[in-house]
Amino acid sequence: GTVSVGASGLGYDNNSNVTLTTAVASSNNVTVQAPALLSSSFVVTPNSVLQGGLFTGVFTVSNAAGGANAQFVYATPVAGLSNGAALQQVGGVSPATTQTVLAGGSVSFTYTFSGTAVNPSLSVSSAALGLDANSSVGVSTTATSNSFNVVDTNPVLTNSFWLTPATPMVLLPR
């Protein structure tokens, strides 16, 4: 909502025995809002790639409705990797510039990762930081992605079987 303040003065002049008053003075309107409140999610697709394949991670930052906008919001340029031996970040985050996240709105940051070694359970994490547009107080959020994996490019046969004819076969010499 908005708030304004009004005030007037009242006094008494002892020399003339006259009561003195001033006109009402009003302030400008001031908007009162809840602070910016950020939340986030991190989704990596696809769930599985062959060794050397690429994953795309979308880190979405949302601001609660009804509060202040969040300004100068940026995602950390390098994501946290659950296993640096099996996963590498390829390039930086996009967009790399700061964003304004309106109250009730969201903005997405995209990362690309390469699966460098076989691993059945990987995840990544990131953080976003910014300022409340009214108070300039810092706001932040963090998120960890869904689990995803890197599989071997050369599958290994784990089962075998034999075929046996249903009726005996006789092989004759030629």
Short overview:
By secondary structure, the protein is mainly beta.
| Structure summary, number of beta strands | 18
Helical residue percent?
under 10%
Give me the strand/helix succession. Answer: EEEEEEEEEEEEEEEEEE
Structural class: mainly beta
> Distance between termini?
102 Å
State the helix count.
0
Radius of gyration: 33 Å
- Low-pLDDT runs of 5+ residues are none
How much of the sequence lies in strands comes to: over 45%
**Mean pLDDT figure:** 91
User: What spatial form do the alpha-carbon principal axes imply?
Assistant: rod-shaped
Largest sheet: 5 strands, antiparallel
Describe this structure in words.
Strands 10, 11, 13, 16 and 17 form a five-stranded antiparallel beta sheet that branches. A four-stranded antiparallel beta sheet has the order 7-9-14-12, with no helix packed on it. The mean pLDDT is 91. It has 174 residues and is mostly beta strands. The protein contains no helices and 18 strands. A hairpin with a 5-residue loop joins β16 (124-132) and β17 (138-144).
